[in-house]
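Project outcomes to date are best conveyed with an example. Our students and postdoctoral researchers have been running inverse folding experiments weekly, and each run begins with a structure described purely in tokens. The record below, which covers 484 residues, was selected by the lab manager from last quarter's runs and is presented without edits.
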């Protein structure tokens, strides 16, 4: 039997959303909520046990069954009871469990990198940053993320690494306090950084610590000056003497700190959509100063610096996307290659107005095109009132978050996790079929590879994501049944 505790039922709540804009081929940038058409979209998975609905009307329900690893293969039947003023109705469920098992999320190969925003959590709930209340609120958010196979901890080295122009409602502040003493020496306080990394690891996110950023959006850096008792803000561009004088002291101190904590091998210096010249200068300086640090970067593909980036996430736009041969070459070199979608990608995407199947499709794209995983810039960069309105003044609605305060999940997040599970199923099947010397296994492996070869960047131009993944899931089912 499958215990009823494995079944969760959520009423689906609607939130305000908008639509993809293509004015002058731009969907990113300021948007006026009063001028962009808006509507309600079902996305938030509410934990309430009951609700009031006016007749005639409908309300969608989300049902999840978390199959325990030790459940034997077979057909399982059960029912879910719905009670209302008009009576009680039993809804029958028939579920087939196959003789295959997914490992625990911590063992999934899929490299998931959803950026966390702990500052949004403190603001929304009205608690002091880094207080016990704040950490208690962060814990379930991080555990939910770890249960989707998250690999990366999002940390900040400096204040506002994404600039002053409010890319999200709550600015990212520095997790490291920089101060310059009266004698000109530098002092760095890592207490918050350590606290957040330790918490994330306790919650199950422990493969990589991504640190933003040595090349911030506006090239501005700040510190507290002990002599003047003021915060100093300075603009310094990679390749200049000013830049290297600032970062040399920090890198040497930071390297010693993460080495002492046992985190040096996990730590990357992370960059987001920076120019090739800036990155080239930064890489040169890093190699001279602290070559032990690895680089993580999300952005467009530049062949000249490709080999310098340990964890590269390619923008999904047609121009600047990493070519297939480069993905293979990076994999052979032990480098990580993922892709990401953001405000300028009409589909596939994770907006609150996107078809939910596109979130699942993102896992299939990764498997088909050889990517190691997927990145998205915002796990929980909530707008002002995310439980009601998913819009933000700069980006398409839902672009800034996949999970709601609570934490309450979303259809988008659950479908993304489903696509990651499909990626793992594909990986496991491919490995098993490759090791099986029978003609039947070879034939089924060819069927699977042929289907994946049919998926590419243009797939959604002609058919829906739902059509692709439904066909793919049926194929996985048939292959498992045929080689039992």
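After processing, the design step wrote out the following sequence:
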């Amino acid at each position: 039997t499958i215990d009823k505790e494995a079944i969760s039922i959520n009423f689906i709540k609607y939130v305000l959303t908008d639509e993809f804009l293509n004015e002058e081929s731009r969907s990113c940038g300021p948007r006026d909520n009063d001028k962009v058409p808006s509507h309600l979209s079902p996305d938030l998975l509410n934990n309430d046990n009951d609700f009031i609905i006016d007749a005639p009307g409908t309300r969608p329900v989300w049902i999840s069954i978390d199959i325990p690893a030790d459940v034997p293969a077979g057909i399982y039947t059960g029912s879910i009871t719905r009670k209302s003023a008009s009576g009680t109705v039993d809804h029958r469920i028939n579920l087939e469990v196959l003789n295959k098992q997914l490992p625990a999320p911590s063992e999934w190969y899929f490299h998931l990198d959803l950026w966390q925003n702990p500052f949004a959590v403190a603001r929304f709930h009205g608690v002091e940053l880094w207080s016990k209340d704040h950490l208690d609120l962060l814990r379930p958010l991080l555990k939910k993320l770890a249960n989707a196979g998250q690999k990366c901890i999002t940390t900040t080295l400096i204040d506002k690494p994404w600039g002053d122009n409010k890319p999200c409602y709550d600015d990212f502040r520095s997790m490291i306090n920089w101060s310059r003493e009266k004698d000109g020496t530098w002092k760095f306080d890592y207490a918050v950084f350590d606290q957040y990394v330790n918490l994330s690891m306790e919650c199950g996110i422990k493969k990589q610590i991504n640190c933003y950023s040595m090349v911030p959006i506006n090239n501005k850096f700040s510190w507290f000056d002990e002599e003047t008792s003021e915060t100093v803000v300075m603009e310094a561009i990679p390749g200049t003497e000013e830049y290297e004088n600032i970062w040399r002291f920090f890198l040497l101190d930071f390297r010693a700190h993460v080495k002492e904590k046992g985190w040096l091998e996990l730590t990357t210096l992370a960059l987001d959509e920076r120019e090739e010249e800036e990155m080239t200068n930064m890489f040169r300086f890093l190699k001279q100063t602290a070559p032990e640090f690895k680089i993580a970067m999300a952005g467009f593909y530049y062949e000249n610096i490709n080999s310098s980036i340990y964890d590269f996430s390619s923008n999904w736009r047609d121009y600047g996307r990493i070519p297939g041969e480069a993905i293979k070459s990076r994999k052979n070199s032990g480098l990580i290659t993922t892709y990401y979608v953001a405000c300028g990608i009409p589909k596939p995407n994770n907006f609150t107005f996107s078809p939910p199947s596109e979130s699942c499709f993102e896992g299939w794209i990764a498997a088909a095109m050889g990517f190691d995983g997927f990145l998205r810039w915002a796990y929980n960069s909530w707008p002002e009132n995310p439980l009601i309105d998913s819009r933000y003044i700069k980006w398409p609605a839902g672009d800034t978050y996949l999970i709601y305060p609570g934490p309450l999940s979303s259809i988008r997040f659950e479908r993304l996790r489903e696509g990651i599970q499909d990626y793992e199923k594909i990986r496991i099947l491919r490995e098993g079929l490759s090791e099986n010397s029978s003609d039947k296994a070879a034939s089924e492996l060819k069927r699977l590879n042929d289907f994946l070869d049919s998926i590419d960047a243009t797939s959604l131009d002609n058919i829906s994501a739902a059509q692709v993944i439904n066909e793919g899931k049926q194929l996985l089912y048939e292959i498992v049944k045929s080689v039992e």
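The first helix runs from residue 118 to 125. DSSP finds ten helices and 17 strands in the chain. The training component of this project remains on track.
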